[in-house]
Amino acid sequence: MSTDGHVEQPKKGFTESDDPGAGQWVMIVDTENADTPTVLLGTGAVPVAIPLGTSDAVETPAQITVNQNNYTFVTGVGFLASTFDRLSTDASRDITGFDSTGITAVQLRKKLINVGSFDLVLKHDDGASDLANRILIPGGADLIMAPNDAVDIMYDVTSSRWRVV
What we know:
The chain has one helix spanning about 80; strands at about 10, 25-30, 35-40, 50, 60, 85, 95, 110-115, 120, 135, 145, 150-155, 160-165.
């Protein structure tokens, strides 16, 4: 297990004895549906299996109040498990990249929705974020998300970048 509480490679199937421990998690592949990556969240009692980016889970993180580099949505596996992420800002704000910690074996897809009253700007391949956290945008230009705009992103593990798709 790595220092951030997860294993680097997925494993097939799990049992209650595989509980990684409270506050830790392990990525698995469901034995009944091998195409569905799942996060096994350690609870300290019985592990909880969360489909990885395949559910209709919605996260609404705290309002963004400063420009963000290596932006982390939530602590733990919430970002990995959620499909829809509702973002808001207190003014026009930039995101230069998203924290990709823990994404090692799947092509994670997410939908970002600007639910605020101000623009949210996704910055193309911006050096302010770590290389593996940067966003690649078609056309090589920044993407301005106006209020109520939505965009699909995916983490490309081959090129180690987020991509607007």
